[in-house]
Amino acid sequence: MLFLYIIIYFTLSVGSIDCVDEIDAQQLLGYTLYKDGKEARVSFPLEKFQSHVAGRTFHNGRFIQRLRKKVASLHNVSLEQGTVTSLIEENGIVKGVHYKNGSGKLLTTYAPLTIVCDGCFSNLRRSLCYPKVDIPSNFVGLTLTNCNLPKENYGAIILANPSPIVFYQISSTEIRCMVNVPSEQVPSVSNGEMACYLKTQVAPKVLPELYDSFISAIEKKGNIRIAPNKIMAAAPHLTPGALLIGDALNMRHAITGGGMTVALSDVVILRDLLRPLHDLSDASPISKYLESFYTLRKPMSSTINILANVLQKIFSASSNPAMENLQHTFLGYLRLGGMFSYGASAMLCGLCPSPLSLAFHFFSIAIYGVGRLLLPFPSPRRLWDGAKLLWVSILTKHLYNNME
């Protein structure tokens, strides 16, 4: 499945912007949110940066191949490709891995430090953390052609009932559409139920300029793909000789496209921790030293994780009157512009990894929503709706408060 990746943080911290060259990656400057004929544009706060600094959307495989090519070009790196089957552990210390090469031969390799980064479907994390994976929904993906988004370089998020719909450019000729569907309600693709669901329940909510291409994408054989949205808090246990990073360690809902931002932030933090070390052979003290990695990553990971998980909760509950009210409140808050809009987008793209800032905006949205309901004249009904809105805001924030 091809997801949206916001890599502004990667551009600024690593400087490897050339990894999105030659893959037809598209600049992303923000989102436009649509609901009931109203819209709110959210732009990333990029005024202080050079023109090449922006979000990027692309085909995932192309980007990964560019990363591999860049790594392979370094004089002190040797690249060996294979499928890791298990970690090698001796006396509680990870010594290396067992893996199969391209011809299926089982091989063994040893290293003083093994960094596990095998993604959301990791088969190695169980020996390094306490994984508790929740799958609240699935993304149904389609590739649209012969159409353009309403605003160039801006993704589109439609807050619709029954499902939020996300559109973003992945190449100069393709637009990715992602439809969020609750896990317990996913229709079958093979018997045509999914196509019927998309045409009858989702298509009427699609923007008019994208409608015809959306229908054509549904009818194109093999174009409908489904991927689970996984949520997993970071719960590592200290294991000498090994370290977890990226989605193998920690996952959030994919609706905001923050997974790559967190993963690349992990890489930067780990790079800085390893830089002064010249000997990794003594596993226990090195492991104790690297334990700080799990603390240092929290500002970025917790900010993006909580934001993503709360937004998917709000965006996916249009049938709930209180959540419907919260959606309108959120759009109105973003339409205020200035620090309100920029503050939210800065957290979204990794430029403001601050849980305190996140808490401020949650509180501000709740206050704005209550004020919006009570003005100009409070009434018993408005007071009751305001109380429900405040309660839902607090409850939603609390549900994901510990998602790191």
TrEMBL record:
Its EC number(s): 1.14.14.17
Signal sequence interval, chain numbering: 1-19
Residue ranges of domain Squalene epoxidase in the record: 111-384
GO cellular component: endoplasmic reticulum; membrane
GO molecular-function terms, A-Z: flavin adenine dinucleotide binding; squalene monooxygenase activity
Recorded catalytic activity of this chain's protein: squalene + reduced [NADPH--hemoprotein reductase] + O2 = (S)-2,3-epoxysqualene + oxidized [NADPH--hemoprotein reductase] + H2O + H(+)
Protein family membership: Belongs to the squalene monooxygenase family.
Keywords from the named record: FAD, Flavoprotein, Membrane, Monooxygenase, Oxidoreductase, Signal, Transmembrane, Transmembrane helix
Membrane topology listed for this record: Multi-pass membrane protein
Gene3D superfamilies attached to this UniProt entry: FAD/NAD(P)-binding domain (3.50.50.60)
Pathway connected to this protein: Terpene metabolism; lanosterol biosynthesis; lanosterol from farnesyl diphosphate: step 2/3
Protein name, UniProt field: Squalene monooxygenase
